[in-house]
Design goal:
Layout: H1 15-38, E1 59-63, H2 70-77, E2 84-94, E3 97-113, H3 115-125, E4 131-137, E5 143-149
């Protein structure tokens, strides 16, 4: 009678080893996702009809949503920027958007962005895909870029 060779046993990871593996891979996966979506040149192309950006001067941006957060602005623009309280007359906030509304105003902040930072903000807001960027006059008389949610049929 011949003896059958022993089959190697499959080694299983312990719960601790599995958790250690996941906790090490998760930050890597999140960082890769963040880079691919928000920084890489592959997944976003600005629309051809996007309003031109003057590369010689900075721009004012009015924020009424997530961009009011200094942390979000830091992550998106790669710079700590301060914002001042501002009001956009003739619009009211409706969910993730602002819509024209006679006699209303939207509270937010206004901050300065370089041309490169404005392009990063466009990418963050997915201009041409999810949002559009238009100039509006604030209650102070300043003109600032404002992001508007595009109609669902164009998204």
């Amino acid at each position: 009678m011949s003896k059958r060779p022993k089959q190697p046993q499959k080694r299983r990871l312990s719960k601790g080893q599995t958790l250690l593996l996941i906790s090490g891979l998760l930050p890597l996966l999140l960082a890769s996702y963040w880079w691919l979506v928000w920084q890489s040149p592959w997944l976003y192309q600005p629309p051809v009809d996007l309003p031109a950006v003057d590369d010689r001067e900075s721009h004012l941006v009015f924020a009424y949503g997530t961009l009011k957060s200094p942390l979000v602005r830091l992550i998106v623009t790669h710079r700590i920027s301060s914002g001042e309280a501002a009001r956009l007359p003739g619009f009211e906030k409706e969910g993730l958007n602002i819509v024209p509304s006679e006699g209303s105003h939207t509270q937010g902040i206004v901050f300065e962005a370089t041309p490169e930072e404005l392009r990063r903000l466009d990418r963050y807001e997915r201009v041409g895909i999810r949002y559009g960027r238009r100039e509006h006059q604030l209650s102070t008389g300043q003109t600032a870029w404002v992001y508007h949610l595009l109609p669902e049929e164009s998204q």
